[in-house]
Amino acid sequence: MKPPFSLRPADPDPESSDADLVAEWMSRPHLRETWEQPWPAERWRQDWVAKTHTTYARAAILSYSIPRSPHIRAAKEATRGDASAAPTPSDENDATTPVGYVEIYRPHRDEIGSSYLSQPHDLGAHIAIGKPELTGHGIFSSFLSELAAALLEQDPQCQLVLGEPDYRNTRTHRALAKAGFQDFGERQQRADRRVRLFGLTRPSAGREPQQRLEATP
Fold first, then answer.
1. Contacts of 52 by beta carbon, 8 Å cutoff, 6+ apart
2. What dotted CATH number matches 5-70+96-214?
3. I need a labelling partner for 153 at 20 to 30 A (CA). Which of 137, 200, 201, 203 fits?
4. Entry pTM
5. Residues forming beta bridges with residue 105, ordered by sequence position
6. What pLDDT sits at residue 68?
């Protein structure tokens, strides 16, 4: 990923704080409602270990370089060109911090795969932003666009990147649309879960991936 974003594998080691962080995020109201997985940290660790033994999904931690205070930026601009005010390394860098949880997966092997005409090489992403104050500002639409491009590059046989947020998650709907994903409407994933399907297709794939999303399985 390009700055200001970075992705790394979620670490299931008990010495790592990753599972504790994700468990805390998932207990927050905005994710409790849309993800419905307010699991304890140990269950997240077990889930990640299980994923490493399959080719179905991988878990990752999303970090973002949060810009420093605008007052600091203004001061840096005001002193630009003044040799006596040369910035220190800490001044040069924004604060990079974990902000979200990402699961990359194969929809064809997931229950969502029965909601459209899925294919084995389709890829999807579940994204949970743990810091709600960062949402709604257009920050993560660029991440979604970069992520989709990276997934298509990693798997040349993939023609479709799928997004399937909860039907109530309007902020994610807007971010996906801004990132170039096409809206294919709501689907009943299971009796207790309704989602909205979004798809971004490889330009050379023509209409075939879109037709699969439009069709009724």
1. 12, 58
2. 3.40.630.30
3. 137
4. 0.84
5. 57, 124
6. 63
Structure tokens given for 36 = 């419905």
Nearest of 184, 190, 30, 33 to residue 110 by alpha carbon: 190
Residue that the structure tokens 């992705």 belong to: 7
Placement of tokens 């409790």 in the chain: 32
Q: Beta-strand (E) ranges in the chain?
A: 5-9, 57-66, 95-105, 123-129, 160-163, 182-190, 193-201
DSSP 215: S
CA pair distance 32, 56, nearest whole angstrom = 24
- Check residue 83 and report its DSSP letter: G
If you search the block for the tokens 């743990």, which residue do you land on?
Answer: 130
| Unique residue bearing structure tokens 């399959």 | 54
Say which amino acid occupies 163.
Answer: G
Q: What's the start-to-end Cα distance of the chain, in Å?
A: 34
Percentages helix, strand, coil for the chain (3-state, rounded to 5) are 40, 25, 35
Give residue limits of the domains in the chain. Answer: 5-70+96-214
